[in-house]
Specification:
By secondary structure, the protein is mostly helical. It is built from nine helices and no strands.
């Protein structure tokens, strides 16, 4: 399978699971559709949480579901679960070295919908907030 086929398959699978009527919506996806964020009307009511910020995301989500702060505050106090030491990304690991400017441009174009939905994702070389060590 080519890299392009992989990207199309990954995006199609996301669309299949997140778009309510993906067969009718998929042909509508273009730059204007993405820029206007009309996809929000075509997605299931889903709440995404990030593993790097799970406690805080879960806490905010539970508040949005009408739980009181006192009922769910324990989530913020729970210890973060970490992968085994050998599975933790080394601080010197630089995933960006695998992406040429041309490949960055290609991925951003092909996955424009995903990068709009998950607007905090980027190919920036600067460390993102979630990549920085947390202070205890």
């Amino acid at each position: 399978m080519s890299f392009e086929d992989f990207l199309i398959l990954a995006n199609t699978r996301f669309d299949d699971f997140q778009l309510i009527d993906h067969n009718n919506v998929y042909p509508l996806i273009n730059d204007e559709y993405i820029a206007s964020k009309r996809y929000r009307n075509d997605m299931f009511n889903v709440h995404f949480m990030r593993t790097h910020n799970l406690n805080e995301d879960l806490y905010r989500y539970l508040l949005s579901m009408d739980f009181s702060s006192s009922e769910v505050k324990f989530v913020l106090d729970m210890e973060r679960l970490r992968p085994e030491e050998e599975e933790i990304r080394r601080p010197d690991y630089d995933w960006t070295k695998y992406y040429t400017p041309k490949l960055n441009e290609y991925v951003l174009k092909k996955e424009k919908l995903l990068f709009s939905i998950f607007s905090d994702l980027s190919f920036d070389h600067a460390p993102r907030a979630q990549d920085r060590p947390r202070s205890s």
